[in-house]
Amino acid sequence: MMVLLELGFMRPHRLWGLALVPSLLLLYILWNLMKRTKASKDRSSLELLFPKRRAWKRHIAVVAAIATIGSLTIAWATPNGYVNVPRDRATVFVIVDVSLSMEADDVAPTRIKAAQEAVKDFVDELPPGFNVSLISFAASAVMVVPPTANRNDIYYAVDGLKLRQSTAIGDSIYAALDGIALIPPDPDHPGEKAPVAVVLLSDGESNTGRDSAEAAKVAKEMEVPVFTIAYGTPHGYIMDGNQRNPVPVNKEELRRIAQISGGKAYTAESMSQLQEVYSGISRSVGYVKEEKEITERFVGYACILGVLSLLGVMSLAARWP
Q1: Alpha-carbon distances of 113 from 98, 102, 107, 162, 266, rounded to whole Å
Q2: Nearest to 168 by CA among 218, 206, 216
Q3: 57-61 contacts at long range (C-beta below 8 A, 24 or more positions apart)
Q4: Residue 101 — pLDDT band, cuts 50, 70, 90?
Q5: Cα–Cα nearest to 32, from 66, 55, 65
Q6: Which of 112, 211, 189 has its CA nearest to residue 158?
Q7: What is the pLDDT of residue 84?
Q8: Residues 44, 50, 55, 60, CA torsion sign
Q9: Sign of CA dihedral 16, 17, 20, 21
Q10: Confidence at 148, pLDDT banded by 50, 70, 90
């Protein structure tokens, strides 16, 4: 599906015709004001033809007719737009934090369980030609599944994620960058470099491993944007025996990673928000802007508006018992 993002014109000098739209609307408004003034004195033949109870139909018919002129004028100017079209190929490294804080239940049923379901939904939304890799990290980063187009391998691996101690965000980014060498070549275009992106979900901040800001700089140099998701609420906690240990989300480190690498930082405090975030990222990495002439789109709009105007006129002219 293509979505219109921007609009330009190959023949912009023809847009002068749009001046008719406000002019005709102004004339119609003035005509109505004059008609109302006259109606206060006597009932005109126009009022007999268009009773007051049918005024809304007349308004719809006139506005639709004027809008038809506007749409046809835009089509006459040969519009072109930048539309989102699905990429044929790309590779997405999905990084999931499996530190012990992900056991917090401030996101039902727990942070890790909700994240597992959202990751699978995200992978399912990506175009089928995309390669996906799964990386988990705690004290160290592990490439659970190397880049592959086989979605079942990813689903199975996501369900098998286990929690461990500590958080090494920087190491997880380096693991993704190292994994680029494992991306299988495109059989149709073996020499062509497909885009690569990293999607990193975490609920904490690094307490071990290499510096995450330095990792983000390397990602920037390699033209690999890192999309980060700060996941959880400020009130999360985990139990250590009978002791409650707070595990609030730290957003600053993840925001810095996204900014440095050229990605985008997101936050999510519930499973539904996380699914929305993943869906937005899917559109960002799964589509590319392409310029395309869209004259026929505005011709279609004009046809719809013209039919609506015609139906309004027919309704006004009809004699109901």
Answers
A1: 11, 9, 9, 11, 19
A2: 206
A3: 57/312, 57/315, 57/316, 58/312, 58/316, 60/308, 60/309, 60/312, 61/308, 61/309, 61/311, 61/312, 61/313, 61/315, 61/316
A4: very high
A5: 55
A6: 112
A7: 65
A8: negative
A9: negative
A10: very high
Amino acid at 210: R
| Buried/exposed 100-138: b ≥16 CB within 10 Å, e otherwise | bbbbbebbeebbbbbbbebbbebbeebeeebbbbbbbbb
Name the pTM for this structure: 0.68
Tokens 């011709």 locate to: 299
Residue type, 274: L
Check: CB of residue 180 under 8 Å from CB of residue 193: no
- AA identity, residue 61: A
Distance between CA atoms of 213 and 219, rounded to whole angstroms? Answer: 10
pLDDT, tens only, 12-68 = 888 888 888 888 888 888 887 777 676 655 555 545 444 555 677 777 888 888 888
